[in-house]
């Protein structure tokens, strides 16, 4: 399992793991729990640009339809086809096999995201 204390977070309940200039992105366990059983995931096309704060995908659950926001500016390098084929991975392994996409980013921009303590405070301690 990923070290969740080492990740960065957004107010839209996404996590970011940075390796060099590649950011792996997913939604948090808190978001997955609030969504309920995820039944459909739509992700952006490989090689497409994404803009921080802009919608880049969709996550549908038995409770609602949610938008996936890009946490950073970047170019889509990879999408997790396993999640598209089996959306329940978002619920069962949000910090592992349930990751959503990988972007090439400016690593300096990741510092602007929240650390784990700030994210836990944002969720009222529920994360």
Q: What does this 3D model show about the protein?
A:
- This protein is an alpha+beta fold.
- The protein has one domain (about 15-120): Beta Barrel (OB fold (Dihydrolipoamide Acetyltransferase, E2P)).
- The chain contains four helices and nine strands; from the N terminus they run βββαβββββααβα.
- A six-stranded antiparallel β-sheet has the order 1-2-3-9-8-5.
- A hairpin with a 3-residue loop joins strand 6 and strand 7 (about 65-70).
- The longest helix has 7 residues, at about 30-35.
- The radius of gyration is 13 Å and the shape is globular.
- The two termini are about 15 Å apart.
- The mean pLDDT is about 95.
- This is Glycine cleavage system H protein.
- It comes from Microbacterium aurantiacum.
- The glycine cleavage system catalyzes the degradation of glycine. The H protein shuttles the methylamine group of glycine from the P protein to the T protein.
- Keywords: Lipoyl.
- The glycine cleavage system is composed of four proteins: P, T, L and H.
